Amino acid sequence: MSAASVEHPYGEYSLIAEANLLMEHRPGNRVEIIEDQIYVSPPPDGLHAEALTDAMLPFVAAGLHGTDSRVVQAIGLWLPTGESDYAVPDLSLVDADYREHLIRNNCYDPVCFRLVLEVTSMNYRTDLRTKVTTYAEAKIPVYVIVDRKHQRLHVLTDPGADGYATHRVYSSGEKVTLPASLGAEVVLDVSEVLGAGKSAEGGE
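Above: the chain's sequence. Below: its structure in token form.
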């Protein structure tokens, strides 16, 4: 999910305390801290939710929500980009023992994440730019972006210090087989995933 950044005062509260206060006063919003900047996302619309469900089903059908791994929504991912940094991806594939990797503030060590997936909203640049670098630095093996704005599906692999070495873009009509490192064969039908998040007017 995309987010808009907000200014935050330094001083009395730590960044995490400020982020938690924002969540308390803005129910339904998603709050993240990336590179010492607080990002606040409004509640997703119905089309965003449909696209997320359609993207999630192939992982479940492949048996990845089982004894070795779990498919989870909106789980906290602790980031190495700052002292208080964390993200909340729309969808994650994690090792089944992820609960043993709790770090802080209901966020988990990136070592137990096999994949993260984001469905873009209004501020799509956060998912397409900021989080590309952030997730690569956290060494998330696979990052998938359902780009509702441009009607494309992005699959990024081979994370490194400067981002992902491999970045493939797919359009409607194509099918994508994700890396076998996930633990099972997962095939995404790009038309189905993008179509679920597309409005009748053709936009987001």
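DSSP finds four helices and 15 strands in the chain.
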